[in-house]
Amino acid sequence: MAKTRALVITGNGTNCETEAAHACRLGGFDEVVIAHICEILSGEIVLDDFHFLNLTGGFLDGDDLGSAKAQANRLQYAVVAGTGEKVVEQFIRFMSDGKLILGVCNGFQLMVKMGMLPGMDGEYLNQTVTLTHNDCGRFQDRWCWLKVDPASPSIYTKGLQGLYLPVRHGEGKFVCDSPATAERIRVEKLAALTYATSDYAASTMEFPLNPNGSQDAIAGLCDPTGRIMGLMPHPEAFVHYTQHPRWTRESLPEKGEGLTLFRNAAEYARKNLC
Amino acid sequence: MANRVEIALKCSVRDARGRRVKREIEQFLHLPVAEVQTIDVYTVDGSLSREELERAAAGPLSDPVIQDRTMDRPIALTRKEGELSFDWGVEVGFRPGVTDNVGRTAREAMEYLTGREFKPGEAVYTAVQYLIKSSPSHELTRADLERITTGLLCNPLIQRYTILSAGEFSGQGGFPPVVPKVAETVGATDRSPVQEINLEVSDDELLRISRDGVLALTLEEMKIIQAHYRKTEVRAERSKVGLGDSPTDVELECLAQTWSEHCKHKIFSGTVQYEDELGNRREIKSLFKSFIQRTTKDVRAKLGERDFCLSVFKDNAGVIRFNDHWSLVFKVETHNSPSALDPYGGALTGIVGVNRDPFGTGMGARLIFNTDVFCFADPFYAKPLPSRLLHPRRIYEGVVEGVEHGGNKSGIPTVNGSLVFDDRFGGKPLVFCGTAGIMPARINGQPSHEKSILPGDLIVMTGGKIGKDGIHGATFSSQELDENSPVTAVQIGDPITQKRMFDFLIRARDKGLYRFITDNGAGGLSSSIGEMCGEVGGCRMDLALAPLKYPGLKPWEILISEAQERMSLAVPPEQMVEFLAMAKRFGVEATVLGEFNDSGIFHMLYEDETVAWLPVSFMHEGLPPLQIPAKWTPPRQAEVEVEVKDDYTGDLVQLLGALNICSKESVVRRYDHEVQGGSVVKPFTGVANDGPSDGAVVRPLLDSFEGVVTAHGICPRYSDIDTYHMTANAVDEALRNYVAVGGALELVAGLDNFCWCDPVLSEKTPDGPYKMAQLVRSNQALYDVCLAYNLPLVSGKDSMKNDFYDEKLKISIPPTLLFSVIGKIEDARSAVTMDVKRSGDLVYLLGPTSAELGGSEYFALKGGVGNGVPVVDTAAAYLRYQAYGRALLAGAVASCHDLSDGGLAVAAAESAFAGGYGMALELAKVVWKGDPAGKNDATLLFSESASRLLVTVSPEKRDAFELFMADTGLALIGRVTDRSELAITGMGGSVVVFAGLADLKEAWQATLREL
C-alpha cells in the first residue's frame, strides 16, 4: 500500500512546523516532510508528492502588512524555478486532486487571504472573509472551549463534540464581507468550530471565552468538501496530556484532543488518496 | 515623485488601534477625546506604474473585506458626511535611517507583484495617520495635540510628525508625501573617508576628544593609546602599510568599543581595595576571577565526575549537558539604556539580540525559550519627572510590547519572567531578556560546544545590512543617561530578518558549511571580528565590501555600527561557494569581507587602503586594570514597628494588590508561552488557569519526556540593607522556585546578571566606595551560596552605569542581581504546580520562620525598610530541597508554592485561590527560629525568611512525606478545605485572617488588569 505523506511548509516567519510535523506523525502519517518555502520556490519539493498540506502557525513576514498578507501575495505571484508554473497553481491542483489542507492560526489567516476559504462554489482564489485584530486589541495566549458542529462537512472534526485548545494570536477576529457570506456559512455548516462555554453547550461572544470577538463566534472554517479547513486554535499544541494547562490536577487521557484532527486526516488520506 | 497609498478600515469595522489610543490619551494624559481613527500610509518611492500601484494597494497592502484604500488623495476626504469627522490630524513616520520593517515587507511584496526589484535608493516608507475628534467637554488645542503626539504617539528620537487642524487638512488636501531618505553627507565624496586624530595634545584636549566622540575613554586610557602610538616599532610597522603616526578614527573608535565597560567589563576585572566595617583591608584582583570564575571552578571540582558544565564564560552563552545526545545553552542579557530612550525599539532589540547569543554559541543552538524580567517605576507615578525621562507607564507599555513582538514573531515561547517595581527604576528601567537553546552534543562528529578558526578561513557576515543605527551603543551604555544621549544609539530589531537567517544558518550548521559563528552585538564588527581575531591571531578585512542600508557611511561607522540581525562567521574557503549559494536560496544576505590569518594584526582596509592596523595583543591586553576603592559601612535604616492587632486581613488584601505581588496576567497572556509544543508547566496554572507558577518546565524534544526547568530570583529591595543578603536571597529564590516545580539538584546551573549604579569614585559619584563595597559583598554572597548549592555559574553579564544624571538630580537604581537557573527534570510528568488540588489535603510549611521583615513588602506597605533582612541558611536549605525533591519523585507532593514577597500569608492565598479550595491554617504550628521575643502574628504572616516552601499533601501520603522531610524544619500547619475561604488562626487562638477566595483573587488581579 502506498504511504500517506504529509507536508509542513515553513520559512519567512512560520514557527510551529516542528510540533505540526510531530502531530502528523502521531496522527498516523507514514512520512512527514518539513519544507522551507524556498525549497518549493526552487522546485526541490513539489506539492503533488503529498496528500496532506499543513499551513501552520507563525508570523509570516512579521504580519507586517496584516497577518499573512505578504505570503499570500508571494504565493500568488512567485514562480517555481525552471517550470514557469506559479506556486498558486500547485495549490489549486492539490485541491482539485481531492487532497487535504489544514491551516492553523497564521496558516488559517493565509488561507482566507488567498481566498481558499470558505471556498464556496469551487472558488479558491476569491477572498470573502478575513481575520483581523482581536477586539481586545492585544495578542492573547489562552485556552478556549470549542464547540464542534457535528453536521459540518469537515473531515477533520468527525467524531468530536468539543475541543479544548489554546489560541495564540493578535489577529483572530473572523469577519465576513457580507451578510450573504455569513448566511451561506451558516446554511452550509462550514463553521466547524465555534468558541463556546466551558460545557461546550453554546457558542459565545463573551470575552475571554471568545478571545477575539469573531463574528458568529467562528473559530474554525472548512470548505464545502470538508477537506480544506482552517482554524485559529492550535490542535498541534495539544497532542499529549502534559500540554494541558491543568494536567497536574485533572485526570486526562494520554493523548490530547487536538490529535484527533491529524488522525482523521491520516485516516482519510489512507482510505481515499493512496 | 513618490506616491501615497492610504489604507483605512471600513466605517463598519471597529478600529481597535484607534480605540486603544483614545483610551491611552484619556487615562494617561487626562484629556477627554470623542474618537480616534487610524489610517496606514505607505509612501512608495519607486518606479511603479499607476496600474501596478493600484494592484499593490488592492492586493498586499489592503484587505478588501475590511479596508478601503486611496492613492494620492486623503482617504479622510473620500468619506461621506457623517461617516468621519475630526478636528485634528497627526501623521507619524520614521526619521531617515530608522529601521522600517513594514516598509521593507511592502517593498518585497511589490517586487513579487511586478517581478522587478527596486533600484538602489528606492524604497517604501510607512507612517500612521491619526484623526482625532474633540469631546463635547473639551475642545482640543494645538498645544493638546503636541502633548498627545510627543507624549504618546511619537518618539521624536526616532520618529517625525506633522500636526494639521481639520481646516489645514482640507485646505491643503491632507498630508504631503514625505520621503525620509537618508541624505548623503555633504561633501563626503571629496573628503577622505578616514581622518587621523592627533593625540600629541594636552590632557584636557585628550578628554575633549573622548567626550565629543562618545568614546567613553578615560584620560588614563587615552594616555595608554597615546603611548602606544609613540612607540618607534609601532610607527615603523605603520609606515609600511601607509599609515601615519597618529591613530585613524577607525582605530580610535575600535579601541573605544573594545575597551568599553560594556565589552571589557573593566569594573569586574579591576583591582579593588576593599575595607570592611571593622577596618580590615584586602585587595581583590578582578571580581570576575576572584568570585564568579572561582565559584564555577570550585563547584566543578566538588562535583567531580558529576560535573555537567561543557563551556563556561568563554562563549556567547554557557553550555551544560542535557543528556548524552543534547546540550543546553542559556544566556541572559540586559538592554537598559536603549529601553530608556526608545522603550519599544530598545526592548525589541534586547530580546532579538539575546536570541543571537545562544545561536552564536558553539556551532549554534536551536532556541527553545525566552525569559523576561523588567524593573520599572510605578506605572501610576503621578509626580513631575526630570527632563528626558519618559513616564514609567510609557516605558512599561513600550517594553512589554517590544518584547512581545520580538519573542512572539521569533517563534520562541516566553516561559518565565517577572515585573519588579521601585521608583528608582524611573532613572533607568532594567530590561533583562534571556534565551535558552539546545544543540546536538556532537555535530558532524565534533563536540558542538567547541569551535575554532584556521588561518585562511574567510570572514563572512550574514543577515541584515549596516546602517548608522546603534552607533556608539556600547560606549553610550557605558555612561550614565543624560539629556544629550545620542540618537543613533537606538536600534529597532527585525525578528523576521533574523528568523530567516536562523532558518538558513541552522541548516548550514548541519551541513558543516562553517567553522565558527558568533553574534554581532555591542560594538558591531569591531567586537565580533576583534574577538574572532583573538581566537586565530589576526585578520584582514575590507570595510568597503560590507553591504550598506544606504550610502554615505564612513569606514569607522561600518566597523562599529550595531545594526541588528547579523552574525559573523568563519567559513573554510572550500565551503564558500555552497554557503553563498544556500544563503541566496534562503533570501539571506551573506558577504565575504576578508580572511582570518595569524599575523597578530587586526588589519582593516577600505577600498584596498589600510585604515586600521592594530596589534591584537594591544587591543585585548593593552589595558591595565582599573583601581577602584571600596569601603563597607553597614547602613542603619529606621526601624519599622510591627503593629499588633486582631485582624490582618486588610493588610493581606493590600499586599496582594501591591505592584510587586499582584498578578501580571495582562502582560503574560500577551506572550506566546506555548509555541514549539513543549510546554509542561506554564506561567499560569490552577483551576481557572490564573495561579502564578514558580518555575517553568518545557520539553524541548517532543518525543522525550526529559524536561528543562528554569526559574529566577530577584530582590533589589534588600540592597537597602545589605547586598550580601540581597544576593543570597536572589540565588535562594531562584533555586527554591526551580526545586518547587521538580527541578533536579544534580543538574542545575546559574546565570548572574548584575545591574548596578556606577560604583567608581568620581566627582559625579562621591559614594562610589560604598556602591563598590556593595558589589564586593554581592560577589562574596554569590560565591558562598552557589558553592553551598552546587550551582556552577555558566554565564552572565553586568551593566554597571544604571544612573540618571542631570544638573540637578541623580537617580541611581538599587543594586540588582537577577539570578536565573536552568536545569533538568528527568521525567516532566513528575512536575508539581502551585495550586492546591483537593480539600482534605494537609498543608505543610517547610523551613523555619524568623523575625525577618527587613526590606519586606510588608514593611514597604507600612512605608519603611527596617533592618532585619532575611538570612539564608544554605546548609539547612540544601538538605530541605534534597528531601523535598525525593518526596516529589515519590509522588508524595500535591502542590508546592515558594514563599517570597509577602511571606506565608501571600503564598497561602495564592495557592488557595489558584486551586479553588480554601485553607485553614494555624500560626502556632509554624516552626520559629531565633529570639522568641520577635515572634508575633504579623511576623509569622508576612516575614520573608528564605528557603521556605508551602506544600500540600494528600492524607494517604502523609507518612511517606513526613519520613522524607524528617529533620528539615517541617510543620503541619493546616488543611485544605472545601470552603472557599482563607482562614488563619493566630498564636492567641483567634482568627487573624479571614477572607473569601474570590475577594483575595480580585485584589490580586485588579491592580494591573487594565494595563
Mean pLDDT of chain A: 96
Largest interface: A-B, 63 and 70 residues
Biggest sheet features of chain B: 7 strands, mixed
CATH-assigned homologous superfamily of the largest domain in chain B: PurM-like C-terminal domain
The CATH H-level homologous superfamily of chain A = Class I glutamine amidotransferase (GATase) domain
Low-confidence stretches of chain B: none
| Cα-based radius of gyration of chain B, to the nearest Å | 29 Å
Element-level helix/strand string of chain A: EHEHEHHEHEEEEHEEEH
Q: Find the count of extended strands of chain A (DSSP E, 2+ residues).
A: 11
What percentage of residues of chain B falls in helices of 4 or more residues?
25-40%
Estimated structural class of chain A: alpha/beta
Indicate the overall shape of chain B: globular
Strand order of the largest sheet of chain A: 2-1-3-4-11-10-9-6-7
Number of strands of chain B: 41
SS strand fraction of chain A? 15-25%
Describe this entry's structure for a reader:
The complex is a heterodimer of chains A (274) and B (1011). With 274 residues, chain A is of the alpha/beta class. Chain A has one domain (5-272): Rossmann fold. In chain A, 24% of the residues lie in helices and 22% in strands. Chain A is built from seven helices and eleven strands. Chain A has helices spanning 17-27, 37-41, 69-77, 87-96, 106-114, 179-187, 259-272; strands at 5-10, 31-36, 52-55, 100-104, 129-132, 140-148, 162-169, 173-176, 193-196, 218-222, 228-231. The longest helix of chain A has 14 residues, at 259-272. The radius of gyration of chain A is 17 Å and the shape is globular. Chain A starts with a strand and ends with a helix. The model of chain A has no long low-confidence stretch (mean pLDDT 96). With 1011 residues, chain B is α+β, with helices and mostly antiparallel strands. Chain B has 31 helices and 41 strands. In chain B, helix 2 (50-58) packs across helix 3 (101-114), helix 12 packs parallel to helix 25 (768-788) and helix 22 (649-656) packs parallel to helix 31 (997-1006). At the A-B interface, helix 1, helix 3, strand 5 and strand 6 of A face helix 1, helix 3, helix 15, helix 17 and strand 25 of B.
